[in-house]
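in:
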């Protein structure tokens, strides 16, 4: 199904969309890594690890988003 896109809606070219997708994947991986590092550091110190879990969840969402974009 190919829907016509109105001229008032800006749509990036395919190269820009690919670059956005790759950057979101890299940011997602970095967020997961930072979340795991924070989780390990906070477990050693016995502190709450809410921020670490937020980083991990957002990173996973970005990685899944990249995977879904590759499917379609």
């Amino acid at each position: 199904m190919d829907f016509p896109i109105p001229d008032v809606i800006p749509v990036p070219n395919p190269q820009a969309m690919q670059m956005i997708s790759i950057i979101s994947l890299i940011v997602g991986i970095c967020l997961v890594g930072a979340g795991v590092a924070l989780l390990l550091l906070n477990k050693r110190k016995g502190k709450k690890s809410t921020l670490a879990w937020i980083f991990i969840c957002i990173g996973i969402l970005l990685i899944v988003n990249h995977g879904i974009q590759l499917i379609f």
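note: The chain has a mean pLDDT of 89.
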